[in-house]
Specification:
The protein is an alpha/beta fold. The chain has a single domain, classed as Protocatechuate 4,5-dioxygenase, Chain B, CATH 3.40.830.10. Helices cover 32% and strands 20% of the residues. The strands form two sheets. The protein has a seven-stranded mixed beta sheet, with helices on both faces. Strand 8 and strand 9 form a beta hairpin. Helix 4 packs across helix 8. The longest helix has 16 residues. It is globular. The two termini are 12 Å apart. About 6% of the residues have low confidence.
Length: 247
């Protein structure tokens, strides 16, 4: 059963080494993510599943490596290492799966967990493809919630990438209200609103978090008494970044 969840953005720029000189611009978002992970730890889950966007729908066991080398930084992470294996000179120790690496969203999640020294429960990753239909996302969430008596989710995903003229997707007037509804739903634990997100519009607005958020909605279906809190909402690069907790 789902006992807690945190929704965090997943831009590689959240990692200071990737952001370089622009790193201070996301300090507030990083602090909110740290607070969100504290809520997950306080829930004392038996299992933490990091859910994020992927090119397919795949499982990533504890120890799976990730890297920010594709963004020009020699920084490696491993899923669920609690900060003990982030390094700059190789993959380090861990089991993982030979030949597989974390997609960027889960790599950012692994970095957040390492940064905060997560040690509260075993960690697994689940990547969900952007095109996964809403009903399939809900079913995926129900499956994850049934993995243990006390399950927590760290849900990685960004809002629209069309908030300004300089945004990756240019300016789309539909972007701001779409993000506002996501922020409201995440901040209030409104699973019905998340289930109702328009997958087609989300694709047009380059929203990476639609499928992960709908997985969250499915996971919460059998949970009683979950309340939401919005910790952060901004669009510094024309991309919607939201941090929220359910507990």
């Amino acid at each position: 059963m789902l006992v807690a969840a945190a929704a965090c953005p997943c831009p590689p720029l959240l990692v200071p080494e990737v952001a370089a000189g622009a790193a201070p611009e996301l300090d507030t978002a990083r602090a909110a993510c740290t607070d969100a992970l504290g809520v997950l730890a306080a829930a004392r889950p038996d299992l933490l599943v990091v859910v994020g966007p992927d090119a397919g729908t795949s499982d990533y066991p504890a120890g799976t490596p990730g890297s920010f080398r594709g963004f020009g930084v020699d920084l490696d992470v491993r899923l669920g290492d609690g900060g003990g294996d982030r390094d700059r000179d190789g993959a380090g120790d861990g089991d993982g799966v030979a030949g597989r690496e974390l997609p960027y969203g889960l790599a950012v999640g692994a970095w957040l967990l390492g940064r905060t020294g997560w040690a509260g429960a075993p960690v697994e990753g689940r990547g969900v493809v952007e095109s996964l239909a809403p009903d399939a996302c809900l079913a995926e969430g129900r499956r994850l919630a049934g993995r243990a008596d006390r399950v927590a989710l760290l849900v990685m995903g960004d809002g629209s990438a069309c908030r300004t003229l300089k945004a990756p997707g240019y300016l789309d007037e539909r972007a701001a209200p779409f993000d506002a509804e996501i922020a409201r739903a995440l901040g209030t634990g409104d699973t019905a609103a998340l289930r109702a997100l328009d997958a087609g519009l989300a694709r047009e607005l380059k929203v990476s978090g639609r499928a992960p958020w709908q997985v969250l909605a499915g996971a919460a279906e059998g949970a009683a008494g979950l309340s939401g809190a919005l910790l952060h909402e901004d669009a510094p690069y024309g991309v919607g970044y939201m941090v929220a907790t359910w507990s």
